[in-house]
Amino acid sequence: MFRFREDDDSNSSVENAASRSNSVSSASTSSKNDDDSTSLSEAFAKIARLKKNITLLKKELSEAKKKSESLEQQVQVLMEANEANKNDHFSSPPRSNRSRKKDLSSIVSRYNVPKLDASILTADDILNYGLRYVGFGEERQKVVEKSSIDRFKAHYGPEPRTVKDLMSDLCTKFPDTELKELLMGLNWLKLYDIEHVLAGRWNYDESVCREKCKKTTRRIESFREKLIVFDASMFRPEEIHIITVDGVNFITQEFRLDPSTKWFDHKSHSCGLKYEIAISVWQSRCVWINGPYPAGLRHDRALFCGAMTMDNPKSTWDRDALLWKIPEGKKAIADSAYEGFPEKVTVK
User: Fold this and answer.
1) What is the DSSP letter of 327?
2) Which of 213, 147, 145 is nearest to 180 (CA)?
3) Tens digits of per-residue pLDDT, 52-92?
């Protein structure tokens, strides 16, 4: 009897232990599943944050690249121009070493001048590139600065600093202005070469040279009304002699469509145009330009007072002429051609 009871108790204990073990195992499994679910959610959230950060970094990197792109291009252009200037060679018939010029490459490299932004151009840049265009390469520019500036002025007229200011004004008003076109226009105005000469120097077709020179000079002329102004209020009360005035003749080609002796310039014995120019004595600036007129048509004095000839009655004189612009009590300084107006002109 007792043995059977012990066996029953033992079996009951085993069943209870197994039941508790199954309960613990089930709870453990449930807890593990919850932990795994939480870990996956956190991992997905972290991946989302990383993706967002990567997107922001890519955007910042793109903006930084755009900001540095223009500078990198400028540096690359300058490096290529410098390399081209070193490596270009001019092919010519064989000649002795003594007669060979080290700087013949400048004749080729002058056409490789880069297109630079006006905002980074300096007077030294304009001097360097301007001389290269007319045949003075890097080797031939290794002279004193005065010689380089004299060469520049001989080909273009104004000095590099003046061209720099003109270039800045032109780019402000006409953003598509290029340095090469401006220099070609100034070169034409200074030397007045025919189209065939310009085509060889500037590496353009004759018709292109013609159009570019006209466009450049018209753009320069557009500043006339703003910059060249004769205003009586600009002179101080204590100033008596306020301007110098003279007639200036410029040599031109013959006017084949209008042949006449009126174009004859007695100073150069050729064809020419006359301009009347006045400069402020105290401000050192041009305040008046009147012209152009045929060089042999009117005398300086007649142009000054607004007459065709000095024989015309005074009542017919043009009241818009410079004589009538000079305020009472003020005078101009001029040469002997302007005698006859002592109240307005002091003749030197």
Assistant:
1) P
2) 213
3) 888 888 888 887 777 677 667 767 776 776 666 555 444 44
